[in-house]
Amino acid sequence: MPEAEKYYDPLRRKAVAATPEEKVRQWFIAQLLEKGGVPRGLMMSEVQMKSAHKPWRADIVVYSGTAAPLAVVECKRPDVQIDAEVAGQALRYYSVLGVKYIFLTNGGGTFIYVKEGEAFRPLDHFPTYSEMNGR
C-alpha cells in the first residue's frame, strides 16, 4: 500500500497529511514569507487556544518580536466559500489573541482586515511584516 502524500510544514518542522486545507495553509505560509517578509521564526501553525472552556486552533498566527500576536490566518479548503461563518471563526480567535490583522483564505480568494478603532476594515493590499508590526 503506498504511503499517503505529505507536505513539509516549515513552522511545525514536520511532515503533515496533504489535505486540501493543508495545501492552502502551506501556500499561505509561503505568501507570508515571500510577500509579507514575515520571519519564519515569528509564525506558528495550528496554534491551540481556549476560551470559555472550548478549545480552538488557529491555522496560522504571526507574532511580533516580543511574542505579541499580530495576525491570525484562517485557511479553508478551496471548495469552501469565505463567508460570515468563516469570518466569525477568525473573530473568535481575535477575541482570545487581540490581533490587529485577520486573513481569510481558501487559496482562490484572500480577504485581509485590519483593526481600526472598534471595527475591522478591509485592506486592499498584502501588508508587510513591518506594516503589521507598526513600523
Mean pLDDT: 93
**Basic shape:** globular
Helix proportion range:
10-25%
CATH architecture: Alpha-Beta Complex
Name the helix and strand elements from N-terminus to C-terminus, one letter apiece: EEHEEEHEEEH
Give the CA-CA distance, first to last residue. Answer: 52 Å
Under CATH, the topology can be stated as tt1808, chain A
Can you tell me the residue ranges where pLDDT is under 50 for at least 5 consecutive residues?
none
How do the strands of the widest beta sheet line up side by side?
3-4-5-6-7-8
Radius of gyration: 15 Å
Largest sheet: 6 strands, mixed
> What is the strand tally?
8
Q: Output the structural class.
A: alpha+beta
Beta content: 35-45%
Number of domains: 1
Text of the CATH class = Alpha Beta
- The helix tally amounts to 3
Care to describe what's here?
It contains 3 helices and 8 strands; from the N terminus they run E-E-H-E-E-E-H-E-E-E-H. With 135 residues, the protein is α+β, with helices and mostly antiparallel strands. The longest helix is centred in the N-terminal third of the chain and has 15 residues.
How is this fold's topology laid out?
Blueprint: E1 6-9, E2 14-17, H1 20-34, E3 43-51, E4 54-63, E5 69-75, H2 84-97, E6 101-105, E7 110-116, E8 119-122, H3 129-132
Parallel strand pairs: 5-6
Antiparallel strand pairs: 1-2, 3-4, 4-5, 6-7, 7-8
